[in-house]
Amino acid sequence: MKLGALEAGGTKMVCALGDETGKIFEQVSIPTTTPDETISACIDYFKDKEIEAIGIACFGPIDLDRNSDTYGYITTTPKPGWANVDIVGRVKEALNIPVGFDTDVNGSLLGEVTYGDAKGLTDAVYFTIGTGVGAGVISSGNLVHGMMHPEAGHMLMVPREDDAYKGHCPFHGTCLEGMAAGPAIEERWGAKGKELADRDEVWDLEAHYIAQAMINCIMILSPQRIILGGGVMHQEQLFPLIRKKTEEMLHEYIKTPQMKDLEHYIVPASLNDDQGIMGCLKLAVDELARS
Ligand code: ADP
Ligand code: ZN
User: Fold this and answer.
1) Within this chain, do residues 94 and 151 fall inside the same structural domain, yes or no?
2) Atom of ligand 1 nearest to the CA of 192
3) pLDDT tens digits for 141-191?
4) Would you say residue 112 lies in a domain?
5) I want to staple 55 with a disulfide (CB 3.0 to 4.6 A). Which of 102, 137, 143, 280 is the partner?
6) Are residues 163 and 74 in the same domain?
7) Domain annotation covers residue 168
8) How far is C-alpha 255 from the chain's CA centre?
9) Does 44 reside within a domain?
10) Average pLDDT along the chain
11) Is residue 103 very low, low, confident or very high in pLDDT (cuts 50, 70, 90)?
């Protein structure tokens, strides 16, 4: 079965062709400029490819309520020009096929639980720590939407005692995104994360905030596993630090086999950065089944 996959990001759109097994046949990257220009370029790519359905995993916030008049819209994004854009409607009108739609992070999570190491898990969380922080959640086998969709990147942090940084989030200052996303690292330390690889204090503090997020996530959602992806998590030394601090902050409050084996509980993404696009393929499969 030939399927389309569109990973819609704030800086680029990845368009791909693949199938229901998660196999990717080809993919291209289109820079994200204005909605008209960008969406048209994506549609042009898919137009003559004879795909049966397409899945879109999109930056947000987006409207996922199928009963809403603005279902399939990018809603209140601060990204200039992109608020109130009917991305699903435009793609559906042009291609006339089923269009699956979810957040970028739910897409990556769906890729991991369908095709990755987390295959078969019913309760899991996927964090991306990059330009922003976002989290996708699956609970009892369903991607969580609820009122809108989780925005766990904006959970509030308790600043470390020695940390006076005011945070980078224009809405909350010291939320997780404000303290731990790539731009926060850059502003706080005066260099990009990549250039700070050998500065232990950078990653110790970074892990302090990510571990708080792990605790909140464990306490609220009780996931079977937490997957950490995104550019910042390419700093692999973060993983043991995050696990250690998570263990310390838990204070043995939860005593499950998973909490004794955090190495297999807090894990990196397993699909070579294809988890998002593979998740889109699954969104397409699921939408086809619905239609
Ligand atoms: P986006 O979130 O825009 O989709 P990424 O997940 O690649 O893209 O995140 C980009 C952010 O991650 C930037 O702030 C960048 O500085 C940071 N970043 C990218 N690669 C690394 C790395 N190897 N180490 C630390 N930080 C990185
Ligand atoms: Zn915030």
Assistant:
1) no
2) 16
3) 999 999 999 999 999 999 999 999 999 999 999 999 999 999 999 999 999
4) no
5) 280
6) no
7) yes
8) 28
9) yes
10) 97
11) very high
What's the average model confidence in pLDDT over 226-236? Answer: 97
70 CA distance to ligand 1 centroid (A)? Answer: 31
Q: Are 103 and 137 in a shared domain? A: no
Domain span at residue 29?
A: 3-107+273-290
Tell me which residue has its CA closest to atom 13 in ligand 1: 182
Instruction: Please check whether residues 16 and 81 belong to one and the same domain.
Output: yes
Confidence bin at 78 (pLDDT 50/70/90): confident
Residue found under tokens 């998590």: 233
Instruction: Give the tokens for residue 192.
Output: 């990009």
Is any atom of ligand 1 closer than 6 Å to the C-beta of 192?
yes
- For the stretch 266-282, pLDDT in tens is 999 999 999 999 999 99
Same domain as 184, residue 46:
no
Please determine, for residue 36, whether its predicted confidence score (pLDDT) is greater than 90. Answer: yes
Q: How far apart are the first and last CA of the chain?
A: 16
Angstrom distance (rounded) from CA 243 to CA 226: 11
Q: How many domains does the chain have?
A: 2
Q: Which of 105, 192, 275 to mutate to test the pocket of ligand 1 (most atoms within 8 A of CB)?
A: 192
- Higher-confidence residue: 18 or 78? 18
Ligand number nearest CA of 235 is: 1
Which ligand is nearest the CA of 167, by number? 2
The residue count of the chain comes to 291
CA–CA separation, 258 vs 237, rounded Å? 21
Distance CA 29, CA 33 (A): 12
Closest protein CA for atom 7 of ligand 1 = 231
CA of 178 to the centre of ligand 2 (A): 6
Q: Is the domain of 153 the same as that of 88?
A: no
130 pocket-lining for ligand 1 (C-beta < 6 Å): yes
User: Does residue 113 fall inside a structural domain?
Assistant: no
Is residue 245 pLDDT above 90, yes or no?
A: yes
What DSSP state is assigned to residue 133? E
CATH code at 50?
3.30.420.40
